[in-house]
Structure formats: structure tokens, C-alpha cells
Specification:
An 8-stranded mixed β-sheet has the order 3-2-1-4-5-6-7-8, with helices on both faces. Helix 4 packs across helix 10 and helix 5 packs across helix 10. The chain contains 10 helices and 8 strands. Strand 1, helix 1 and strand 2 form a beta-alpha-beta unit. The protein is an alpha/beta fold. It is globular, with a radius of gyration of 18 Å. It is 43% helix and 14% strand. It has a single domain, classed as NAD(P)-binding Rossmann-like Domain (Rossmann fold), CATH 3.40.50.720.
Length: 306
């Protein structure tokens, strides 16, 4: 049968932050961590949807230690406000889950291309700002959610936002490649610093969430949206199944630094298993340059790992 949610070790006494926790993979991840005893902070952009998620979670897991804090990854002011206002002396687990996919060209509040800005830069800044509360925790983990779609686009350090020739799916692939390069470089820097904190990546395979509907909706591409919806119904696995690789990377014993956990069957579905990744996501020089550019663009430096 493979690893499932019942295999999650006891999380009592641990604090977890999950971005994009109001629905889909993020919600299931938050719910299962709470079910195993973690205090879970649901980091959500919408107060209304976040409040609904908290209510739903408490109905499913009565007595769970959960709370909502607003976080808009498309606005670095919001990222800083979230980090500074977080009422937690330690963060045992950070799950960088929130994301956008194949959007028409648009920019964040800080002027970055939206997919790169939300999927990579927002999480880069959040992780760096929370790092002082992560590093002292011996068994802490930072799990960043990428995608098999990273194969659609190799990062272009000369055109990070793809402004010159924007193509929505290539931009998505580049942002997911950036996620894996971030995980790779964070793992390297943690090792150099002698830190036991684990940086790992995961992907949910093809899971039925609302992520695939947003891009076509914003672009007014009704037919594409209908095809995506049909795929969710007929082909995709459930959000609960899609969350298992993320939960495995976050909690299973023996997850090694820079691991990429996906699904067993061709990256589409199935229980958690090591995932294929494109060679460019293991390029040390590209990872270092992306890190340096990310520090410059966000104004966030990683004290103790520089």
C-alpha cells in the first residue's frame, strides 16, 4: 500500500507553518499535521477563505491547535508582516506550498512577474525571515513544493521574469525549477554551516485542486478550463493523496537533504517515492547565482548561512 497519513509520526510540541493552507494540498497538509498533534499556522492570503478553512479543520479534528495568519506572497510587505507578527519562538516545520500556475502575464506588488514572484521569491523571503526561529530546532525541516512541470522551463538568470518572451507555461516551469534550485542551495548552505535542519522538496503529482482552474479563468479561456476540470475528475488523484508526498517529506524519518519526493507512478499518482528532477536543478553555480539574485531582489539575507 505504501506510506500513508497514518504513518505520520507524533507531532506534539511542534509548530508548523503551511502556506496556502485554505484549500487543496495545503489544507490537507495542515489538517494531518494538526491531527498528529502539531500546532499549525495556516498562512493564507484571504481572510474569508482562511477562516472557513480553520472552521472546517476544527470540525474534522476537534480540539486541534490551529490558527490563521494572513500572508500574501505577492507582496513582500505582507511577507515581512507575517514573519514579524508570528507568535512562535520556534518553527519546527515550514511548508512552502502556496503557488500559482500558468497565469496571464501580471506582476506582484513589488513588480516581479507573478509566477516567479509568488512561487519562488515570496517563499525565499519568508524562509529567510523565519530562519532565526528554524535554525535552533535540531530536527526542523523546510519543505518546498515544486512540480514535475519544472521540466517545462530552465531558469534564465538573465530574464528571471520572462518579460522579454513571456509564455505562461514556460514561466511556470521556470518558477518550479527555481523552487528546486532554492532547495538545493539551502541544503548546501545548511550543510556548510553544520546545521541539522533539512531542506527538501516535494510534489503532489496530478492532484485535483483548484490550482489548474485559476490560469484559464483569468485568461478567459473557458474551453481550457473545462478540459482542466475534466482532467481533475477523470485522471487526477485526490488532494488527500496528493498531499502525501508533502507530508512524507515533512515528517518521515530518514528524508535526506535536497530530497525530491513525488509519486510512484510516472510522477502522476501513487504513494510517496523519490522523484525525477532535471539536471539543471542540481547545478551548483546556477543555484548560487539564483540565491544571490533572490537576496538582492527581496532584500532578505540569510543570517548564519551567508
Amino acid at each position: 500500500m505504501g506510506w500513508n497519513a497514518s504513518d505520520i509520526p507524533d507531532q506534539s510540541g511542534r509548530t508548523a507553518v503551511v502556506t496556502g493552507a485554505n484549500s487543496g494540498i495545503g489544507y490537507v497538509t495542515a489538517r494531518e499535521l494538526a491531527r498528529r498533534g502539531a500546532r499549525v499556522v495556516l498562512a493564507c492570503r484571504s481572510e474569508e477563505r482562511g477562516t472557513d478553512a480553520v472552521d472546517r479543520l476544527l470540525f474534522e479534528v476537534p480540539g486541534a491547535a490551529v490558527e490563521l495568519r494572513l500572508l500574501d506572497l505577492a507582496d513582500l510587505k505582507s511577507v515581512r508582516a507575517f514573519a514579524h507578527g508570528l507568535d512562535a519562538d520556534r518553527v519546527d516545520l515550514l511548508v512552502n506550498n502556496a503557488g500559482v500556475m500558468a497565469l496571464p502575464y501580471s506582476t506582484t506588488a513589488d513588480g516581479f512577474e507573478m509566477q516567479f514572484g509568488v512561487n519562488h521569491l515570496g517563499h525565499f523571503a519568508l524562509t529567510g525571515l523565519l530562519l532565526p526561529r528554524i535554525l535552533p530546532v535540531p530536527d526542523a525541516r523546510v519543505v518546498t513544493v515544486s512540480s514535475p512541470g519544472h521540466a517545462l522551463g530552465q531558469i534564465d538568470l538573465g530574464d528571471l521574469g520572462g518579460e522579454r518572451h513571456y509564455r505562461r507555461w514556460v514561466a511556470y516551469g521556470r518558477s518550479k525549477s527555481a523552487n528546486l534550485l532554492f532547495v538545493h542551495e539551502l541544503a548546501r548552505r545548511l550543510a556548510v554551516a553544520g546545521s541539522p535542519v533539512t531542506s527538501a522538496a516535494a510534489h503532489p503529482g496530478y492532484a485535483a485542486t483548484n490550482l489548474s482552474a485559476v490560469g484559464p479563468e483569468l485568461a478567459g479561456r473557458r474551453l481550457v478550463g473545462l478540459v482542466m476540470a475534466a482532467g481533475n475528475r477523470l485522471i487526477a488523484q485526490s488532494a488527500a493523496a496528493g498531499a502525501l508526498p508533502v507530508l512524507f517529506a515533512a515528517t518521515a524519518p530518514g528524508v535526506h537533504p535536497d530530497a525530491f519526493i513525488g509519486t510512484r507512478w510516472q510522477g502522476w499518482r501513487g504513494p510517496p517515492a523519490p522523484s525525477f528532477r532535471m539536471p539543471w536543478t542540481l547545478n551548483d553555480a546556477a543555484a548560487k547565482r539564483l540565491w544571490e539574485e533572490s537576496e538582492r531582489l527581496t532584500g532578505v539575507s540569510y543570517e548564519g548561512l551567508d
